[in-house]
Design a protein that fits this description.
77 residues, globular, two-stranded parallel ribbon, mainly alpha, 8% strand
């Protein structure tokens, strides 16, 4: 259908295993990373005010669970 799926910091939470598993299946060129600021900061900043700079941690987490090189993964975002 050509849809894009957005990942916020929630995907990095320890109890979000089902969500993380879902993002393993989505093609890299269909993933967006967002802050959901000022809420839902990714690990390791969970519980603090979220900022756009924290998208790095969400993207890093996604690249790790997908066994992708971070630079290759982020070139698709």
């Amino acid at each position: 259908m050509g849809a894009y799926i957005s990942a916020s910091g929630v995907v990095t939470f320890k109890k979000s295993t089902d969500l993380a598993d879902t993002f393993k299946l989505i093609p890299e060129n269909r993933i967006l990373v967002e802050t959901d600021a000022p809420y839902l900061a990714p690990s390791p900043y969970r519980g603090s005010v979220n900022e756009p700079k924290n998208c790095f941690y969400t993207a890093k987490f996604l690249s790790e669970i997908r066994n992708s090189d971070f630079n290759d993964f982020t070139n698709h975002l």
